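[RESIDUES AND BACKBONE]
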Amino acid sequence: MHREEDKLWWTITKNEDYYILNEPARPPHITGPFISINKASQKWSDRSKKGVPLRLSSLPSLVVRSITNQSTQISPDREVAEFIIALINDHDVSPWTSKPKWTSDAKQSKKNPVTHFSPEQIAAYRMASTAFETVKKADGRTIESTAKIKNIIDFTEEELRKHVEDLISDQEGICALTELPLQFDTDLDDPELSASLDRIDSNGHYEKGNLQIVCKFANRWKGADDNSGFLRLMGLIKP
């Protein structure tokens, strides 16, 4: 596990041999001899297996203290580790939060044991994260494309997430292109109706005034087409 600001990241190592990097990046706090022993892992994630965001601010204070008292690479005690594994697997965490030590700590800290996210909030986290992944490569460099360059203007990832939540609310949970009810991640019957972040002007950037929430299939159908032109075609097929 690894923490980055409010995000809790996790991965699972692969069943492969360890390897040593010939020229590893030296951590700034190490001055003596240094050898980096590594093991291949699956892709890192800051969400549970069902897409629920893993955020320090949503965890019990007892867990937060255990995590933040360590370096960014986390090795929590067994009880906290089992709790986090349950969160990652979307299991019931009441066996931990109902323990006297945990309930007492929650009362003293005046904080709920675990913050639960609504399906709309979970979808907003996903859409904001996907937008940032779209315009950046895994190493953080901007993707350069002669066909289309997309940037995120005046948004941090957290600000974009909140803006997406506002869009969902303003649209009353309705697709801006088809007027069909949107479906959200943990309350999903039809993946094609899943909420998707769309740029109104496909040649524009991810910025205020150029974003709308649409069904996944509508976003795919629209592609790089003009928004007004797509709405006209949708009007032709409506009864």
Q: What stands out?
A: The chain has two domains: 2-109, 119-237. The chain has eight helices and six strands. The two ends are 52 Å apart (CA to CA). Residues 2-109 form one domain.
